Request: fold
Amino acid sequence: MDLSSFVTSLTTSFLIFLVLMLLFTWLSGRPGNKFIYFPNRILKGFDPVEGGYASRNPFSWAYEAFSSTEQDIIALSGVDTAVYFVFLSTVLGILVFSGVLLLPVLLPVAATDKSVKTANSTTSNNTFNDLDKLSMGNIGEKSNRLWAFLIGTYWVSFVTYYMLWKAYKHVSELRANALESPEVKPEQFAVLVRDIPDLPEGQTRKEQIDSYFKSIYPETFYRSMVVTNNKVVNKIYEELEGYKKKLARAEAIYADSKSTGKPEGTRPTNKTGFLGLVGEKVDSIDYYNEKINEIIPRWEAEQKVTLREKQQGAAIVFFTSRVTAASAAQSLHAQMMDTWTVIDSPEPRQLIWSNFSLKFFDHQIRQNVVYVIVALTIFFYMIPIGFISAFTTLENLKKLLPFLKSIINQPEVRTILEAYLPQIALIVFLAMLPKFLLFLSKSEGIPSKSLIERAASGKYFYFSVLNVFIGVTVGGTLFTTFKTIQKSPDSAITILANGLPANATFFLTYVALKFFVGYGLELSRIVPLIIFHLKKKYLCKTEAEVKEAWKPGDLGYATKVPSDMLIVTIVLCYSVIAPLIIPFGVVYFGLGWLIHRNQALKVYVPSYESYGRMWPHMQARILASLVLYQLTMFGYFGAKKFPYAVILIPGIVFSLVFAYVCKQKFYRFFHDTALEVAAEELKETPNMERIFRAYIPPSLRNEKIDDDQFEDALSQVSRSSSNV
Reply:
């Protein structure tokens, strides 16, 4: 990429961002769009805009986001969202403090070096000479100036240690404050029990569970709920809910026809066959009422069958004390680890019921199978990623597709293609992956949504680093130097080490594209806005359908966190080699902090709360990026034949020690609830019946259900304890 292409990329990306900002300012000021730009506030019962739309100026959103406190974030979006902002501010701090030393010191050191460079000593394949002069590639082999870059490498490392340690302590406090809250939270009084042994003769499953826990916790055991196979009852329930929605829609259409047509209105009709396209034509309202009346008895009968005959070897056990629940979740209950496995319970809305009944070794086998699939996916994805990185350089395009040569040689076309083609191809290619990784994580047998997202986030991070960062770097280098390696195989290591920084300009423009265009689309919400208005105009007939059309969703940690981690990895690894990437990283995380803060306060609604359990994984992956950065620098110093490169080895060792110390000191509290935290007093006596019923699956809830229908779900032991 030459200078004109680089400037074109930055300029056009910035202009796109400005256009999207102006669109956001205009569109968010229109009351008809309030459900797209302020859904979180609306759902919380607040006015969309404080002070009215007339009082707003184009920068009101930025001021409100910047002036908001951490407690504002927690109140509107939860602890997990606040922890995400701790992550953003921590990385931002690392980059700012690193840049304070690296930019004023390393740039002049590199720019004033007059030593002769080799052909491969470049950050941009000898086409972007101005950037080369400001990078480590401009320093000659064995030069004493490399000391400055070595010191810079350690500076970045120490800044990272300090910021991560400070952040870990802060997030621990956030988690403790949330867990010791006097508010009653159902998940703090329950545990999940798996791997329940076979039934003893003469006992029901419920009696077995209740008697076991009653003997261990005689004072605080409340009752238990046996996990059942809900596949059939869920299907019937979904069918019933579907007909209820169709009935509401038909009634809305009928009511609307009275105001727009004849006073008596026109009753809607539909065909009963495939997709409503074939079959007998019937009155929609009567037909849906008949179907609902037909399904309800079948649903109620299946509820009874499910509760009595489809019990699994798993349960949710409830205690009257959250200290007991916290203690039980981290205690060994049986001699064998694959029997009576007890873990803490997530929120009721998080539960993945179908994964409860998996046995210990079934879960282990599934987990290992998924890891193998992920490893194969990473390996085989590396091939097309490497191909993309190599193929989308214009010189390689001309070699592989000679008929495009005349088009590519046009200056205007060449500039645009160099500015955007590789980065857009990579972003589009990566967009296909997240849903697949979420599916794999769920297939492991993980019982909660937050754990599934954390598992998918980890897979996506390692995929991104191995395929995007390493794959693009190595792939591009191998492609362009393959003939040289063929002629002289012993030069492979030297060529690859020298070629490592050759993709700096690619990553510079990749980061710029992500924060200018990506954040512009995030803030403007153009796509959700268009979809909402199309649905509202042509598809939605009821208030429930309109609400479903503007439902905002959550921040999407499974994809957002690893995407940010990729930028962390890129910026860290190039921070000393090409310090000019640091301002790009600062803008990415600074702008991301501001825009995501606005979205957290006004747009996104969290789908779960795990009280910051994502943080240890974030911290560990920042450290993984740091170690990769240190290894990268060690290799590059070796390529520069700097004899003191070995001085970096203690830094790598210290990073591993630092990771170990952090895990030993902090991690346990994120895995288990500290008893001193759980022992804090509640402001009211918990309503245990309400807590119990919060965990009943929607398909098993019924106004007619009483304890008689739950006779297998409430054994005599639990009944007697509830009356104490």
